[in-house]
Amino acid sequence: MSTFKRNTSKHGLSTEIVHSKSLGGQDFAALPVPVYRGSSTFFENTAAQRAPVDPLGLDYSYGLHGNPTQYTLAKRLAEIEGATHALVCPSGLTGIVLVAQACLRTGDHWLIPENVYGPVQALARSLHLDFGIEFSEYDPCNAETVLSAIRSNTKLIWTEAPGSLTFEVPDLKSILATAKAHGIRTGIDNTWSAGIAYKPFEHGFDFSVQALTKYQCGHADVLMGAVLSNNTAAFSDVERKNRILGLCVSPSDCSLVLRGLLTLPLRYTQQAESGLLVAKALKQHAAIEQVLHPEFSECPGHAFYKRDFNGFASIFSVVLNAEMTDAQACKIVDSLKLFKIAYSWGGPESLALVVNVPDSRKRRLAGSDGKCGPILRLAIGLEEPADLISDLMQAIDGAI
Fold first, then answer.
1. Which of 264, 257, 248 is nearest to 35 (CA)?
2. pTM of this prediction?
3. Does pLDDT of 2 surpass 70?
4. For 68, what's the count of Cα atoms within 13 Å in the CB-facing half-sphere?
5. Read out DSSP for 135-185?
6. Cα–Cα 20 to 30 A to 172, which of 9, 63, 180, 232?
7. C-alpha dist (Å) from residue 258 to 11, 81, 198, 229, 272
8. Are 161 and 188 in contact (CB under 8 A)?
9. Which pLDDT tens digit goes with each residue over 261-272?
10. Structural domains of the chain in order of their starting residue, each with its CATH number
11. Mean pLDDT score across all residues of the chain
């Protein structure tokens, strides 16, 4: 039971409820970051309300612009990845949209990899149709195609490492050198590494975008993204665009991600090691043609991965034998007892999907007969690897 001073105020009850002082602050300290809610942010006086705001500083002028919970999350993300600037936004895709719209104007051109996250291709098409922003795709397995694709109006080169669904690792060092030689801004979707396995700003990237929905949250109950940068001028453009669009995130969701960060390195490592055990077991099954995982030497870009990364994620794909059908692939996924059928990754539960990739990418995965079988994407959670392996084996055997 707590004891409080008896209220002797002469104000009415409604007035007292509204103006009651909060507890905590300097006299209270605990590990969790408080959840600061509020749309109206109070000023000490008119001078404070009229004072100019630094768009790259801590702005407590209105709830839409930020609060201590949100800024604490941004600060910790910047510390993890080695960035100077960071903002959080509603999703990882939102972060990519912010970077694209901040860097590109009508008549500009940007480059995206062929194996990029599907919604980024949709974004590029939308920006082209609606705003006349040009784009083209380069081969992530051949850095020379970046140089040949650069135009006089190229303003942004986007990368993803490894590539979506098929997990090729590009020669980021070469791509960055080409971009810098031509004065072009660069960005990377660094969600796979969670800011742990790859440090983009040590290599010279202008932007890093992450989907905090994945490992940072870690519990599959928050949608959020982040944009990070060491380039003040470039980040200023992103911050300006973020304000114009009126984007914000819930302080309660920020609190959940802050909690997830406390166990991020442990979960990332544990899930990665479990995923590698599952991947190695699947390589031995006769129905599996390939396992697409950067840790394996046959994975395209394995040498670049070993050079630039100091860890790996728990998500990978497997290519079934060419004689297997899509119906059999669906039967495998439908027969799994421990895997959920869902998008995303990085949560405690393991996930499985039958995925489709363009024919140009399938040809790269084709066997000696020129055919590529169905592809399954697996995201390994926190279950026991032996249990997951047993579940996968019974599902595959049942389908064939």
1. 257
2. 0.93
3. no
4. 8
5. EEEE-TT-THHHHHH--TTEEEEEEESS-TTT-----HHHHHHHHHHTT-E
6. 232
7. 39, 15, 20, 20, 21
8. yes
9. 999 999 999 999
10. 46-261 (3.40.640.10), 264-399 (3.90.1150.10)
11. 93
- Give residue 86's identity as a one-letter amino acid code: A
Q: Return d(Cα 138, Cα 146) in angstroms, integer.
A: 6
Taking the C-alpha atoms of residue 312 and residue 71, their distance in angstroms, rounded to an integer, is: 28
DSSP string, 8-24: ---S-HHHHHHHPPPP-
One-letter amino acid of 121: Q
> Among 6-10, 124-128, 343-347, 367-371, where is mean pLDDT lowest?
6-10
pLDDT attached to residue 370:
82
Nearest partner of 80 among 206, 198, 250, judged by Cα: 198
- Bridge pairing between strands 154-160 and 225-229: unpaired
Q: What angle do CA 316, 319, 323 make, to 5 degrees?
A: 165
Burial of 388 (0-12, 13-18, 19+ CB in 10 A): buried
Longest Cα separation, the chain: 88
**Residue 59 and residue 309: Cα distance in Å, rounded?**
35
367, two tokens: 């066997």
List helix spans (H) across 9-117.
13-19, 46-50, 68-81, 92-103
- The predicted-structure confidence for 185-212, as pLDDT tens digits, reads as follows 999 999 999 999 999 999 999 999 999 9
Work out the number of other CB atoms within 10 angstroms of the CB of residue 142: 13
In this prediction, residue 3 carries a pLDDT of: 58
Token code pair at residue 288:
């599996």
Distance CA 121, CA 127 (A): 10
**Looking at the predicted structure, is the pLDDT value of residue 17 above 60?**
no
pLDDT band, residue 19 (cuts 50/70/90): confident
